């Protein structure tokens, strides 16, 4: 089908299923275990209803905001997904250009299929903000080298993934072998500066990672540190106490611990706990959320409950698989239009007008 026929994020997934090799599609689309968490990530948004305001002048709507000090046109970023060349030969470079053109941020994965230099080199202008997702290695010298490289390349946020002490028990794992060996498989697409894949995945998992390590990260870099994969309010408070600049409530798109709660479900208690502890959410600490964001209304709900911004994973991969860079831009335009429409119908002119009392969460925990 032509790109114009793609009218929402779900349309891209159906096409991706047709155009991708089955190994790539199953790598992108699967979750862990029985996919309970993956399914719930999106379904939880269906239990939040709106309390729209009427009679507000919404002839002009401003969707722009700031994330870690960078101006963005929309409170949405593309989250890190490894090996993007499995989706499209331009891989992460296409995502760099699409996000640049749209004025939003790309979080670059540690396990990218292009080198960091290639991806930062694909910026549409020198000031385009980009973040790096970090898988910490048992080899901390290597981790330090990656961070130094990030600094050199002007990365503005370091998102340390903390929900992967081991690789999750994915349903897809029975396909892993094919995936590594296939034509379009990881072996062929991983940037060769990081070695071969068979030895690479274990290098980027460190089961010993713990709270005491934060001080070390802070001592070696000035880039703000955000923990990606926080899954309960107690850890949100700990991240703040350890001097992180923020957190991403995330369960890795349901690819790690099955039965981890959907991030939107814990967002209200996370915000309450941070406020209770005295965290200044206007200044010192930013809360992001990803997992199951598929609609502009999902973005609105997350913001109403306190998120500074939201990340998408699979939708961008599907759009990239189907139509390359243009597909990703089309996807972002669809989400932008949906979000703008939601803002108008909710009676909100700007991001700061979006408040908790605009959503009804009485049924959120009901499932
Ligand atoms: C991911 N995700 C991920 N996260 C991370 O920290 N490092 C990584 O290398 C990857 N790789 C990755 C590959 C694929 C194929 C997927 C689908 C996801 C998780 C990602 O950053 C994000 O948390 C989720 O994808 C968000 O959920 P949705 O939008 O996919 O529902």
Automatic annotation (TrEMBL):
Q: What is its main location?
A: mitochondrion
Q: Name one GO molecular function term.
A: metal ion binding
GO CC entries: mitochondrial intermembrane space
Which residue range or ranges hold the FMN hydroxy acid dehydrogenase domain? Answer: 1-364
Keyword Oxidoreductase (UniProt): yes
Q: EC number(s)? A: 1.1.2.3
Give the protein name, as stated in the record.
L-lactate dehydrogenase (cytochrome)
The species is: Circinella minor
Q: Which residues of the full protein are shown?
A: 120 to 486 of 512
